[in-house]
């Protein structure tokens, strides 16, 4: 996937949108390092259920996270059609397994609606807001909340 940097207006932010099942999500594009095709992962013993394993990414060990499972959805059954979004979360680089990348969105803070109060605590913990764009509802995920730095933050 090629990407051209365009001049953003003050307050604009770019997000990368992707699908998991029939739902759309997005993350800040500044967290994304690359998008690559599915590569089978080597399972790691005693890892969390949402961690599919690790792959070799140009000599570095990259943990692969089933984002559907991490978000409390039905775990993915990876195929060649799935993609891995390689993202920087704090000081760690992780691979996020998603069904497909769909768009690059340019939005303003006013475009982002707050997460509805009726959402589950899990959804409010990970979701920064919701975008209503072109008859689509896209949930903005805060990657830092998906992967707390310490176990005490996870609690």
UniProtKB/TrEMBL annotation:
Superkingdom of this protein's organism: Bacteria
Transmembrane segments annotated in the record for this chain: none
Pfam families hit by this protein: CheW
PROSITE patterns: CHEW
Gene3D superfamilies membership: CheA-289, Domain 4, SH3 Domains
SUPFAM superfamilies xrefs: CheW-like (SSF50341)
InterPro entries recorded: CheW, CheW-like_dom_sf, CheW-lke_dom
GO BP terms: chemotaxis; signal transduction
Name under which the protein is recorded: Chemotaxis protein CheW
Organism name: Rhizobium leguminosarum
Lineage: Bacteria, Pseudomonadati, Pseudomonadota, Alphaproteobacteria, Hyphomicrobiales
């Amino acid at each position: 996937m090629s990407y051209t940097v365009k001049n953003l207006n003050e307050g604009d932010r770019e997000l990368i949108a992707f699908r998991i099942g029939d739902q759309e999500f997005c993350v800040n594009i500044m967290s994304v390092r690359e998008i690559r095709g599915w590569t089978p992962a080597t399972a790691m013993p005693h890892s969390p259920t949402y961690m599919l394993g690790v792959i070799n990414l140009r000599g570095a060990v990259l943990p692969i996270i089933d984002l559907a499972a991490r978000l409390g959805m039905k775990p993915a059954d990876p195929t060649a059609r799935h993609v891995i979004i390689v993202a920087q979360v704090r000081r760690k680089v992780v691979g996020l397994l998603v069904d497909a990348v769909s768009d690059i969105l340019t939005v303003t803070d006013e475009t982002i609606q707050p997460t509805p109060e009726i959402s589950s605590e899990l959804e409010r913990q990970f979701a920064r807001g919701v975008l209503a764009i072109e008859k689509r509802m896209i949930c903005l995920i805060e990657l830092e909340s998906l992967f707390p730095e310490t176990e005490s933050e996870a609690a």
